[in-house]
UniProtKB/TrEMBL annotation:
<comment type="similarity">
    <text>Belongs to the glycosyl hydrolase 31 family.</text>
</comment>
<dbReference type="InterPro" id="IPR048395">
    <property type="entry name" value="Glyco_hydro_31_C"/>
</dbReference>
<protein>
    <recommendedName>
        <fullName>Heteroglycan glucosidase 1</fullName>
    </recommendedName>
</protein>
<dbReference type="InterPro" id="IPR025887">
    <property type="entry name" value="Glyco_hydro_31_N_dom"/>
</dbReference>
<feature type="domain" description="Glycosyl hydrolase family 31 C-terminal">
    <location>
        <begin position="521"/>
        <end position="597"/>
    </location>
</feature>
<dbReference type="Pfam" id="PF17137">
    <property type="entry name" value="DUF5110"/>
</dbReference>
<keyword id="KW-0378">Hydrolase</keyword>
<dbReference type="Pfam" id="PF13802">
    <property type="entry name" value="Gal_mutarotas_2"/>
</dbReference>
<feature type="compositionally biased region" description="Basic and acidic residues">
    <location>
        <begin position="39"/>
        <end position="49"/>
    </location>
</feature>
<dbReference type="InterPro" id="IPR013780">
    <property type="entry name" value="Glyco_hydro_b"/>
</dbReference>
<keyword id="KW-0326">Glycosidase</keyword>
<dbReference type="GO" id="GO:0004553">
    <property type="term" value="F:hydrolase activity, hydrolyzing O-glycosyl compounds"/>
</dbReference>
<dbReference type="InterPro" id="IPR033403">
    <property type="entry name" value="DUF5110"/>
</dbReference>
<dbReference type="InterPro" id="IPR030458">
    <property type="entry name" value="Glyco_hydro_31_AS"/>
</dbReference>
<dbReference type="Pfam" id="PF21365">
    <property type="entry name" value="Glyco_hydro_31_3rd"/>
</dbReference>
<feature type="domain" description="Glycoside hydrolase family 31 N-terminal">
    <location>
        <begin position="64"/>
        <end position="143"/>
    </location>
</feature>
<dbReference type="InterPro" id="IPR000322">
    <property type="entry name" value="Glyco_hydro_31_TIM"/>
</dbReference>
Length: 981
């Protein structure tokens, strides 16, 4: 029987694809073999041609056991893909685990996010490319830490499918699309700007927000309803007080050109009398525990049951609910929490022993570990099908948080619960590009950041680039300050208005790119190296990206605008242009020589546009004086375009004897060309252009000025551009919104990087270490949000007693230079004349080790105290990330010689006396076969405590309880090192 993965996405093996079936190799004494789909590849392999060598090796246990596949590629190969992954664009040196995870507040070293794409795009040294897909739905390790080597590891046997090699990365993506499918053609309104927060809590608030967009002339097409629209978080219901008449609210929204999208989660409240629970129980659709009873887990409504979307019966039941739901005026549906996320569990999800009664053609009855990674995609599929049933004349729009390779057929996606800081702004660019390089072109981040409060400059800069992502949505969490474009002052509001007007002018081009993606599988937004895959200097560029021939160059630095940054351009002609909207906080735009870019009017929502509107063509001639471009037009919704009801126009421009002729070269589709004015703009360089007006479909002629005049026009344009930028008020550089809780998220942590370690430290709100990354293994052992968890110290005698909540003061810092150790020392006032002091050092003589020396010191004590402070103790309180919660234990040898191994099911355990670790305990990750070793002096530690949380573990060290004098501080000095198991 085929794996679920094969049946979900493996439909066609086309020319240029071969399939390495390691499951067969595991059973064959002769080792692995390759079966080529293309006979020419077989001949090339036989004849020893110059084709790139793909050398697979297989390490596999007997049938049903774990398997590793290794593919060696030529030295100098660059890796991309791996789906929804944080960190840099070029993936060499990184490792990803495909296990869909509620990764709230993830960081650049987080190895499992909300989606799984066991896929790598390899760009070879000569610019050719190939793709490699591990055909497994189970947890899979993608290890790219060894140069030019791909390693896949999973718990059971699986085939590997290789696409290529082809001449370009774009050809690989087209080939992949034949196997996993292409993006569904989105409704055109969904390519406008979306405004969301958790939550707009009433119909009145929703309408007020949208009307403010219209009053301020800021484009917007969609408003979103998060979970608070529901009655007690029950899916398919509406709060009767706050949303008493959703259909009427949506009618009002439609009257001003705005669509409404509503959230649906998989967790269904376990409550008799609730119609969804009752009908689901009657139809026997819930995921079961191993004993056959429905699994119950806590999510937003409390105790919940979960639909088993692996069954066609369940998918049909869910689709029927969706079909009825959209009659309330639902234009689109948002599937959240569908990893599936479950509260109050160490793993953040349901037990892997749960049972799914899947259809026979996708794997049949299996435990949760088999279906976990495709659960979100199957939910999105059911939602998509329900919307299609409810209104066959419209294209469904679904957004999903969890997904798998191939889910672009059913849903768009966003990059999850990011943070309002500059690091996450920067990271949003490669994340969107990686998703595109993994088959999902319709994606974008939460503009401005979901968690915490953006500053004006951060929000405006993020909107500048986010307005040009394929999916463009602003979203923030409950409790944050307002994150609408007008919420950050006049300067930010104006920058956001200009950014979104840009998007809407470019919508004809963006919509055309989605048509190409739908028909050919090419990503909408691509890395810059797609313009020249042979140029190695382009392969790590991650603050610029391509939208077809349009190059977008942004800045993610708080102190520099895009116009002040040095941007690496591909070879050839790249001409800058704008819409008279240049701004210090917006990206710089270039058009490739040889391209024609169609642009529309600066509308406020998609419904304002008409086929008879004026159309503009921006033209950049190549070195031969030629250019070409294409424009796709249809009704913007529905499926008539599949029957020929569309207009696909190919425009050309050609220079002959100083005259440029622009014309329609050819057109496709049954639509008659609309009668509209056509404005031609030919770029000369430096933002200068010459223009002419005509009628679309007729030849238009422009006379090019002589070279001397062109030089003068370019110089004048550059000067005017510089003056315009100098006159514009940039967005103020404010560190944080005054008096707002959570504003610390916008600050930039201090980096300590040396030897094996990279630590991020914030000298505010307790001076926490918020990230601890082991560089050789690319494992992020600790990652937290700035104001909670992480690494900190507490003083007091009670568990959860207060620590230092004031800003720490950096006492000294030694930088890594001339062999000196990397070190930072901080202290914070805890009252009563006491300070908490922490020195973090990456040792010069042992760079594998992080040493943290913590102490409570008395700077002054009260009169009559005898020189001693009150009774205090010191608690070292690190909260470590569990990348693989089901595969982790805490292990040590106690002082009395007993061996201890504490699993997540143990809850909270305290060790005192001879049961304390004998100076060393380890956090062991069996999945990656690594241990984080914590060493300390037992004479400084009176007890140790382990507390398992949701996706994390706290390993505390407690000092004795005693008073402190100036001469007798409390001290705990301990070290961390990573070892291979």
């Amino acid at each position: 029987m085929a794996t679920a993965g094969e049946m979900v996405w493996m439909r066609v093996l086309e020319e240029g694809v071969f399939r390495f079936d390691a499951s067969e190799a595991a059973r064959a004494a002769a080792g692995p073999s390759l079966s080529f789909a293309d006979p020419r590849q077989r001949e090339a392999a036989r004849e020893g041609s110059d084709a790139p060598a793909v050398v697979p090796a297989c390490e596999a246990a007997p049938e049903g056991g774990a398997q590793k596949v290794v593919l060696k590629l030529p030295s100098g190969t660059s890796f991309y893909g791996t789906g929804e992954a944080s960190g840099p664009l070029e993936r060499t040196g990184k490792r990803v685990f495909t296990w869909n995870t509620d990764a709230w507040g993830f960081g650049p070293g987080t190895t499992s996010l909300y989606q799984s794409h066991p896929w790598v795009l390899a760009v070879l040294p000569d610019g050719k490319a190939l793709g490699v897909l591990a055909d497994t739905t189970r947890r899979c390790e993608i290890d790219l830490r060894e140069e030019s080597t791909i390693k896949f590891s999973a718990s059971s046997a699986y085939p590997v499918i290789t696409f290529g090699p082809f001449n370009t990365p774009a050809d690989v993506m087209t080939s992949l699309s034949h196997a996993i499918g292409t993006v569904s053609m989105p409704p055109k309104w969904s390519l406008g700007y979306h405004q969301c927060r958790w939550s707009y809590d009433s119909s009145e608030k929703v309408l007020k927000v949208v009307r403010t967009f219209r009053e301020k002339g800021i484009p917007c097409d969609v408003v979103w309803m998060d979970i608070d629209y529901m009655d007690g978080f029950r899916c398919f219901t509406f709060d009767s007080k706050r949303f008493p008449d959703p259909k009427s609210m949506v009618d009002n929204l439609h009257s001003i050109g705005c669509q409404a999208i509503w959230m649906l989660d998989p967790g269904i409240k376990k409550e008799e009398g609730y119609f969804v629970y009752d009908s689901g129980s009657t139809n026997d659709v819930w995921i079961q525990k191993a004993d056959g009873s429905p699994f119950v887990g806590e999510v937003w409504p409390g105790d919940c049951v979960f639909p088993d979307y692996t069954s066609e019966k369940t998918r049909a039941w869910w689709a029927s609910l969706v079909k009825d739901f959209i009659s309330n005026g639902v234009d689109g549906i948002w599937n959240d929490m569908n990893e599936p996320a479950v509260f109050k569990t160490t793993t953040k999800t349901m037990p892997e022993s749960n049972i799914h009664r899947g259809d026979a053609d996708i794997g049949g009855v299996q435990n949760h570990s088999y279906y976990h990674n495709v659960y979100g995609m199957l939910m999105a599929r059911s939602t998509y099908e329900g919307m299609a049933m409810g209104n066959a004349a419209k294209r469904p729009f679904v957004l999903t948080r969890a997904g798998f390779i191939g889910s672009q057929r059913y849903a768009a996606t966003w990059t999850g619960d990011n943070l309002s800081n500059w690091e996450h702004l920067h990271m949003s660019l490669p994340m969107v590009l990686q998703l595109g390089l993994s088959g999902q072109p319709l994606s974008g981040p939460d503009i401005g950041g979901f968690a915490g409060n953006a500053t004006p400059k951060l929000f405006g800069r993020w909107m500048g680039v986010g307005a040009l992502f394929p999916f463009s949505r602003g979203h923030t969490e409950t409790g944050s300050i307002d994150h609408e474009p007008w919420s950050f002052g006049e300067e930010c509001e104006e920058a956001c208005r200009l950014a979104l007007l840009r998007r809407y002018r470019l919508l004809p081009h963006i919509y055309t790119l989605f048509y190409h993606s739908h028909t050919k599988g090419i990503p909408v937004a691509t890395p810059v190296f797609f313009a020249d895959s042979q140029d190695p200097e382009l392969r790590k560029v991650e603050t610029s990206f391509l939208l077809g021939p349009l190059l977008v160059c942004a800045s993610t630095l708080p102190n520099k605008g895009a116009h002040e940054c040095a941007h690496k351009l591909p070879k050839g002609i790249w001409l800058p242009f704008d819409f008279a909207d240049s701004h210090p906080d917006l990206p710089v735009l270039y058009l490739r020589g040889g391209a024609i870019l169609p642009v529309g009017l600066p509308i406020k929502h998609v419904g304002e546009a008409s086929l008879e509107d004026d159309l503009s063509l921006i033209i950049a001639l190549d070195e031969n004086g030629k250019a070409e471009g294409v424009l796709f037009e249809d009704a913007g919704d529905g499926y008539a375009f599949t029957q020929g009801d569309y207009l696909l126009t190919h425009y050309t421009a050609e220079l002959h004897s100083s005259v440029v002729t622009v014309k329609v070269f050819k057109s496709e589709g049954s639509w008659k060309r609309p009668k509209r004015n056509l404005k031609i703009n030919i770029l000369l360089g430096g933002g200068a252009m010459i223009s002419a007006d005509g009628v679309d479909g007729e030849e238009i002629h422009l006379t090019m000025p002589p070279e001397s005049e062109v030089s003068s026009l370019v110089a004048t344009s550059e000067l005017e551009h510089k003056k315009r930028l100098e006159m514009i008020r940039p967005i103020p550089d404010i560190d944080e919104p005054s008096g707002q809780e959570g504003a610390e998220l916008s600050k930039i942590p201090v980096d300590l990087k040396s030897g094996d370690w990279l630590l991020k430290v914030v000298p505010w709100i307790g001076g926490r270490i918020i990230s601890m990354t082991h560089l050789p293994s690319d494992s992020q052992w600790l990652h937290s949000r700035i104001e909670i968890n992480g690494y900190e110290e507490y003083s007091g005698t009670e568990y959860r007693s207060a620590g230092c909540t004031e800003e720490y003061k950096v006492i000294r810092r030694y930088l890594e230079q001339s062999g000196e150790e990397e070190s930072i020392c901080m202290e914070g006032d805890i009252g009563g004349g006491l300070v908490l002091q922490r020195q973090i050092s990456i040792l010069k003589d042992n760079p594998k080790t992080v040493q943290i020396e913590s102490s409570i010191q008395a700077r002054s004590v009260g009169a009559g105290s005898g020189g001693f402070s009150r009774l205090v103790c010191l608690r070292v309180h690190p909260t470590f990330t569990l990348l693989h919660p089901t595969e982790v234990v805490v292990a040590f040898t106690a002082i009395n010689g007993s061996k201890q191994e504490i699993s997540p099911e143990s809850g909270e355990i305290t060790f005192e006396g001879d049961l304390r670790p004998n100076g060393e305990w380890m956090l062991v990750d069996k999945c990656v076969r690594l241990s984080l070793v914590n060493r300390f002096d037992p004479s400084e530690v009176s007890k140790c405590m382990v507390h398992w949380g949701t996706g994390d573990v706290n390993m505390e060290l407690w000092s004795e309880e005693r008073p402190v004098s100036k001469d007798t501080p409390l001290r705990i000095c301990h070290q961390y090192e990573v070892q291979t198991n």
